Amino acid sequence: MSRIKSPSHAWPPANSSAPPAAARPSLPQRASYVQILVYLAFCLLILAVPLVIDDAFLLNKYARYLALGLAAAALSLSWGYSGILNLGQGVSFGLGAYAIAMHLKLKTSPVHTGAAGLPDFMVWNNVQTLPWFWEPFHSTLFAILAGMLLPVIVASLLGWFMFRARIVGVYVAIITLAMLVVTNLLFIDQQRYTGGFNGLTDLAWLEIGGVEFDPYSPTFYYLTAGCLSVCLLLGLALTRSKAGLILRAIRNDVDRVRFFGYDVAAYQILAFAVSAGMAGVAGMLYAMVLEFASPTFMGVPLSLSMVIWAAVGGRGSLLGATIGAILVNFMQGSLSETFLDTWQLILGALFILVVLFLPNGLASLIDMAGERLGRAPPRARTEEPAAAAPRAMGTFNTKQRG
Amino acid sequence: MTITRRSFIKSTAIAGAAGAVGFPHIWIKDSGLAWAAGNEIKVGVLFSLTGTTAVVEKSLHNATLMAIDEINKAGGINGMKITPVVEDPASDPATFADKANKLVLNDRCVSVFGSYTSASRKAVLPVFEKRKNLYWYPTLYEGRECSKDVMYTGAVPNQQQKDFIPWLVKNHGKKFYLIGSNYIYPKEENNVCKILLQQLGGEVVGEEYVPLGHSEFGSVLNKFRETKPDVIFSTVVGDSVIALHKQYKAAGFTPDKMPMASLTTSEVEIAAMGGEYAAGHYTSAPYFMSHQSPENQKFVENYQKRYGKDAVTHFVSEPAYFQIYLFRQAVEKLGKGDITPINIRDAAGGLEIMAPQGRVKVDPDNLHCYLWPKIAQAQADGQFKVIEQSAEWVKPEPYWAYPGQSCTKDGLKGA
Amino acid sequence: MDIVLGQLFTGLSIGSILLLVALGLAIIYGSMGVINLAHGEFVMLGAYSTWLLQSAFGLPFLACLVLVFFMVAFAGWVVERGVVRFLYYRPLDTILATWGIGIILQQAVRLSAGAELRYVQTPEALAGSIDLLGIAIPSYRLFILAVTAGLLLLTWFLVQHTEFGMKLRAVTQNREMASCYGINSSRVFSLTFAFGSGLAGLAGALVAPIKSVAPDMGTNFVVDAFMVVVVGGVGSLLGTVASSGILGGSTAGLAFLLNDTLAKALVFLAVVVLIRFRPRGLFVDRVRR
Fold first, then answer.
1. DSSP label at residue B41
2. DSSP letter string over B72-116?
3. Three-state DSSP string of A275-342
4. Cβ separation C117–B55 shorter than 8 A
5. C-chain residues within 8 Å CB-CB of B246?
6. pLDDT band, residue B373 (cuts 50/70/90)
7. Cα–Cα dist A24/A164, whole Å
8. Is residue B52 part of a domain?
9. Residue partners of C81: CB distance under 8 A and separation at least 6
10. Confidence at residue C166, expressed as pLDDT on a 0 to 100 scale
11. Which of B50, B216, B251 sits opposite C138 (nearest CB)?
12. Is residue B13 located within the same domain as residue B51?
């Protein structure tokens, strides 16, 4: 996964597009082309995986990593780009997961209770009729929209609540953490409607327009990789837009941006909500790939793990965070149970080292190597082009400001 | 075990790095060959070694491995060794489902032994039903389930509550407080209890559920004080049981006035909390460590030899142990090429075996077991004293509390 | 009536445990601005040390308490020297780094002491209950209440009436200026961190007999303790006391009316609203950086 070997078809267009404009494009411009190309190359790469791997079990695993990668990318959008450390990413992730799981649960016919049309756990909890808010989830479209929009709505409200009061930094972290705990507790407590600690099990497969998405199939892998690609590219577009520029400015100095007359809170809410929507999509994919929606999706450990992944990969880069999540999970998944114990130790240590010495994650490592060699862009060809580019963007901005 | 895992890692690593080498389509149907490859039969062992229910599940894990070792030392099954593939699902249902998928699809286990909580069983159930594999579930549970891909070797409500509740009403009174952990098992077990109490003219003065792993029972104890029940019917599980008993005693309650009656508190929880906290409370189950029989003596002896003289056996570790022997008997009936989960299930139906609790039998229709219900009182030494016991084995009826429904060979009958 | 009293005591008891855990955190966060997510793991270390001292060396419980304080304080000192001191100017990153430390500590304990739950015996003399105003009160809970009060007094005395406390207050107010006056600020911080960790260890030792001891027991504590500190107001001992009382009491009250889960959810929700309107907490010290 880590080895990206497709520059052969990713690179030439860059060269061919470079000459016509000017004799030589300025460094920032070139860097931004590279960034787009790197993102595209990554998307092509993950979409090409089923061509070489013909094993349903592995594809399922990879799809899972990609879903978690998306969650980490979402986090980097709010944390890395906008300085909003969201420790409660699990809220959005979980809402997405439950939304789609409710739909898929309704599609399963319960075999153990003999009560048609009512999810089995409701029968065990003495619920007689399907609650009204479960009804619309019969529709696939509604469930998918809910999985995206519900987190967006919740995040917008919470964002409005926090950012209008100019809550920043540590307090954002604590509020989001508290909201995570609250959501988790409520989902566990309302067993009659959510399945409680059990979660929603025994889910059917998603079916759209006659295509069935068996989580152990290339079809499903394509769905996940496609979602991740779309989200990454949209995220990239956002960060490269004017809004993205202002968000970065907010991250660096809130007051200055406010003095310029920008509505800081509105931009923060935007980033927070978009991030939540992406996390919702990630949650939906994750629930489908595991065929499960569990309150542990909203547990403190998972949300903090997402922060770790993003930090390891590089919080300041969507792609860096994604790759961080994929890498960590890939390593974790390929180790045996016995070594897993030691692995947790290593992971903890690695994480501390990254925080101490590489605040921008592994992405900055590549960047440093690039600087040593003088010119960053060509370097991106050989090793892990992913992370170098966004960092170059960062330099670009600093120059603009200063 | 190690070999299996290492080869798995290696192949994953290769497939991951080079991308070109993958497994063949491993999950595709049963091509008899792959199930019992070489001279080994791979089975999954899926008990939590960490997390809130690890206190019980560790002992199930131990009992399972002990039985597997015994069988292997005695020559295996038709000359083939049983190879356990161990996973730790960490008391989390989602992880259970995940690991079950791995055991079934990736490791090609022909059966998986596992689970303590019903939450985890419900989590893995779809995996086994979709992939037509076989799950062996040793724990007593709430019934109302009729899967054709699970062997249930623990008790269902009619084997625990049917005699227990009337006995409690007769000896202690009609006012019950229902306290349980907040998940599916206690809810459904209490449903049954309420149905029984209604028939007996009893009364439920309170019903409350605490989260798994909960350890602060102050408010709950005050509610006991306020409602003054005659019996506290407890379906609290995991380490909460220990906190509940300790705080119950520290709050000045005594079991002769307000005993706790449980379907889940066993020798292993008592060993963890200390006998003085459990003494006087009641449990109903088909097996207790103090049971007198040659089979049980051997079981307890071997277990303590293997896991230390303080190790205890209990009514979930006993089925965890004897179900491996059931598995052996079933596989023995099959030719090497016929070893598939479905065939094992069919061969196991109707089997009888001398278990530590007495002779048990698999009901061929609903795949549950005929067992020997008992009512017992915990003693200060950590053991149970049996007060009443059934004169004959009791047929398992998973839909006993729901007249009109029954689990048959073809699945659930009646609505 | 006795129900109300009983519930009142339950609230007090929950509050005292909250305070016990939050005290160390309040000191560290209040004076150094470090969000120590490994605090829960120090509580866990304390519980495990008690278990170890009790089961392996057969020490009486009270002797364990003293030893545990120093053992965990030392662990805290190592962590401060090794990691935290590099992050004083990056408060958000302390969240991350200390979470990493938490993972390591948890895993180290899991590897060395095993993943299974451990149990610490309540000292014989404190196992029973005492009749007070007609209700039976567990003596061990009373003991915790008393120890918490004692530790609180000790901490207050240390901060307000010793030379070390004076230095600490000086460094808290303005680190650079304090250094100019010859205060070894990094030493003050290490010792403070060690003291806070030691308090966490003590908390762990004290709750061990009433809860089960497991490697991941800390995670729950740390979140609760944080809410206490934030509600109480950063850098305010009195605030921490009041807020643990308020949170403990309302949790117990709501738990009696509804159930424990909903009680906790509602209390946390209230905390969120409170932070929104009073981010600096209910009881803020006059002087802050």
1. E
2. HHTTTBTTBEEEEEEE--TT-HHHHHHHHHIIIIIS--SEEEE-S
3. HHHHHHHHHHHHHHHHCCECHHHHCHHHHHHHHHHHHHHCCCCHHHHHHHHHHHHHHHHHCCHHHHHH
4. yes
5. 122, 209-210
6. very high
7. 45
8. yes
9. C190
10. 85
11. B251
12. yes
Give the whole-number percent of chain A exceeding pLDDT 90: 39
Tell me whether C136 touches chain B (CB under 8 Å): yes
User: What is the total count of domains within chain A?
Assistant: 1
Query: Looking at residue A367, what is its pLDDT?
Result: 67
Q: Which residues pair with B377 in a beta bridge?
A: B282, B385
Best residue in A86, A167, A181 to probe C by mutation, most C CBs within 10 Å?
A: A181
Among A22-26, A229-233, B23-27, B90-94, which range has the highest average pLDDT? A229-233
Q: Based on the fold, state whether residues B164 and B275 are members of the same structural domain.
A: yes
> If pLDDT is split at 50, 70 and 90, which confidence band does A179 have?
very high
Q: How far apart are CA C171 and CA A53, in angstroms?
A: 59
Options 1.10.3430, 1.10.3470, 2.40.50, 3.40.50; CATH of C2-277: 1.10.3470
Over residues B137-152, the mean pLDDT reads: 92
- Digit-coded pLDDT (tens) for A43-53: 999 999 888 88
3-state helix, strand, coil in chain B (%, to 5): 40, 20, 40
Residue A12 belongs to some domain of the structure? no
AA letter at A388: A
> What is the rounded distance in angstroms from the CA atom of residue B160 to the CA atom of residue C165?
62
Six-digit token string for C22: 């939050």
Whether the CB-CB separation of C72 and C46 falls below 8 Å is answered with yes
- Note which residues in 35-94 of chain C have CB less than 8 A from chain A: 35, 37, 83, 86-87, 90-93
Q: What DSSP line would sit under C116-134, residue for residue?
A: S-B--PPPGGGSSEEEETT
State whether B212 and B259 are in the same domain.
Answer: yes
Neighboring chain A residues of C91 at a CB cutoff of 8 Å: 169-170
**Model pLDDT, residue C183:** 85
d(CA A169, CA A120): 44
Share of chain B above pLDDT 70, in %: 91
Q: Which of B85, B48, B51 is nearest to B65 (CA)?
A: B85
**B44 occurs within a structural domain:** yes
Binary contact (B145, A112; C-beta < 8 A): yes
Q: How far is C243 from chain B (nearest CA, A)?
A: 19
Q: For chain C, which residues score pLDDT lower than 50?
A: 286-289
Q: Are residues B162 and B253 in the same domain?
A: yes
- Residues of A with Cβ-Cβ distance to C272 under 8 angstroms: 175, 178-179, 182
Which of B53, B92, B210, B216 has the highest number of chain C CBs within 10 A, making it the mutation to test binding with C? B216
CA distance C255 to chain B (A): 6
User: Which residues of chain B lie closer than 8 angstroms to A55, CB-CB?
Assistant: 15, 22-26
User: Is the pLDDT at B66 greater than 60, yes or no?
Assistant: yes
Share of chain A above pLDDT 70, in %: 81
Enclosing domain of residue B110: 2-139+316-348
Residue among B111, B122, B134, B116 at smallest CA distance from B59: B116
pLDDT at A151: 96
Query: What are the pLDDT digits (tens) for A115-167?
Result: 777 888 888 888 888 899 999 999 999 999 999 999 999 999 999 999 988 88
CATH code of B388's domain: 3.40.50.2300
On whether residue B336 sits in a domain, the answer given is: yes
3-state helix, strand, coil in chain C (%, to 5): 75, 5, 20
- Measured between beta carbons, the chain A residues lying within 8 angstroms of C110 are 341
Chain C residues in contact with A162 by the CB 8 A cut-off are: 276
Read off the pLDDT band of B180 (50, 70, 90): very high
Please report the ipTM that was assigned to this predicted complex: 0.86
Yes or no, beta carbons of C212 and B274 under 8 Å apart: no
Domain that holds residue A363: 38-401
